[in-house]
Specification:
Length: 361
């Protein structure tokens, strides 16, 4: 009889433990599918580690935010072929998938860097423009991939152009912008890395270029991003060295134009078309505190209270490298404040204390 009672008690205990674990797991899942909690009214950098270099962000039709980054080895033996994260509120992020199951084949070797992903209203699909390059590559290029879902897998559509075919050295770091010009929608791709920043129109299917390229900036920049606001176009360009670990000198400067094609001018009226001319200072590192090399910003996201948030990567001076030796660049975020028509970030450096989190209904 004692054995039976002990057996029954053990069974009940196992069921109870299973139930508790199940409830815990269910609670964790529910947290991800509910609106942000009161605990999410504040956040602190970094948003995600170990790495999401050169981030781009899109909000999916399912309401989630998806962030994509450069291919990197997060840990020994684990190489993320364009990692995808997801979040409900820009604060809590989780790894979702790799964008590609196999590497594109239109180039013999190279990494998949600095993706730009959009949700295209024309057909409801998700398009990724990506760089295909090695360090010091004489002929890098930009490809296109497409998916029905924001978390992939993305199907490669092949090469859009490379440096030789487009006539621009170091053709990497794509950025896409669709814009209404008069009665027409124009689709522009901007790109370039320290050899000039260029733009060109794309066809409606986004798989070909049309017309002639045009130049908007000189050789001081890469990772271009253009933000339309109040009838003006704000150019954010990353300057300096991105990938030298704790010695990275990446920083972001800004210029503004009245037309998408420029001219883009600094606060004191200097044209960034001139080689060596950076934009007006906006954002830099502070290695005395923690973070250096902030840059290659993603889409500026506006929350439901009208606050603008700037997402980017940076380097922790105390932990600057991934296992394979590449620079470790976690995902970061800081709020933008507009002062006299110019974007600013408090102190002009990455925040290290708790900050007001974005709010979404």
């Amino acid at each position: 009889m004692k054995k039976i009672i002990l057996s029954m008690a053990a069974g009940i205990l196992i069921l109870l433990v299973t139930f508790i674990i199940s409830c815990k797991e269910d609670k964790e899942v529910l947290v991800w599918n509910e609106p942000p909690t009161s605990a999410d009214t504040l956040y602190q950098n970094p948003l995600f580690e170990p790495d999401l270099a050169d981030p781009t962000i899109v909000r999916g039709s399912d309401g989630w935010f998806y962030a994509y980054g450069t291919e990197n080895q997060w840990s020994t033996g684990i190489n993320r072929l364009v990692p995808i994260l997801r979040s409900k509120n820009l604060v809590k992020w989780e790894y979702a998938a790799d964008a590609f199951t196999t590497r594109p084949t239109w180039k013999n070797d190279g990494g998949i860097w600095a993706p730009c992903v959009i949700h295209y209203d024309y057909d409801g699909k998700y398009y990724m423009f990506y760089s295909f390059s090695t360090w010091g590559d004489s002929n890098p290029g930009i490809g296109v991939a497409v998916s029905d879902l924001p978390y992939g897998p993305f199907q490669d559509q092949g090469k859009l152009f490379d440096s030789q075919s487009i006539g621009v050295a170091n053709s990497i770091d794509p950025f896409f912008l669709e814009l209404k010009v008069g009665r027409y929608l124009k689709r522009y791709l901007f790109w370039g890395s320290f050899q000039g920043i260029y733009g060109i129109e794309l066809t409606q299917d986004l798989k070909s270029t049309t017309g002639e390229k045009f130049k908007i900036a000189g050789n001081a920049f890469e990772a271009s991003y253009i933000y339309p606001k109040d009838g003006k176009f704000y150019f954010f360009g990353s300057c300096g060295s991105c990938c030298e670990g704790a010695d990275s000198q990446y920083h972001v400067t800004i210029a503004v134009a009245d037309d998408i094609k420029g001219p883009y001018l600094t606060k004191d009226g200097k044209s960034i078309l001139n080689d060596g001319q950076e934009g007006s200072p906006f954002f830099k590192g502070d290695g005395r505190v923690k973070w250096v090399g902030p840059g290659h910003n993603a889409e500026i996201i506006t929350d439901d209270k009208g606050h603008d948030y700037f997402l980017y990567h940076a380097v922790d001076v105390a932990n600057p490298l991934l296992p394979g030796g590449a620079t470790r660049r976690p995902l970061m975020m800081d709020e933008i404040h507009w002062v006299d028509g110019w974007p600013t970030i408090t102190n002009g450096v990455p925040s290290t204390t708790r900050q007001r989190a974005p709010y979404f209904e």
